[in-house]
Description:
By secondary structure, the chain is α+β, with helices and mostly antiparallel strands. The protein is built from eight helices and four strands.
Amino acid sequence: MALDKYTIGQRYGTALFDLATEQGTIDAVYADVAALQQVFADTPTLAATLTNATLTLEQKQPILTSLQQGATDSVKNLIQMVFDYGRMNEMPFILAAFMQRYDQVNGIVHAKVTSAVALTTEQQQTLSTQLATRLGAKQITIDNTVDEAVIGGVIVEANNLVIDGSIRSKLAQVRQLLLG
């Protein structure tokens, strides 16, 4: 039975997290994984290139070497093993699973906040503090997206929770009351 990308990602990502924790290199591995994740995001054809059967190992090796350059031994070994097993297409899932596990253990929550105007640093800090209390998190990172259609207020998405405090949704509720 073939495993799906998500399952492979969870297995490899969790194994890397456990190994890094055991070796006491979790922060260094986290930095490497974050950098590698950015490389894959910036180069969408990278995995396809490294799994392309028409390219020789000699053509792929410089790419692998550059990915491994300066990384911890654990990350170097992960890259090589994933490449050797022909699973480079699963690498983004592996990296995401590692980051998810890291965030979970360290109480980090990523919140997507949509507002009509960009939030100030003070507003982000206040919102972060309130969300940390509500979600029981140690740290909240906010990704603020501006959408004028929100009209005012904010829409927060974090940990499978959506808090819609936008004027747009309030107007929609009033409209429903008037029509109903």
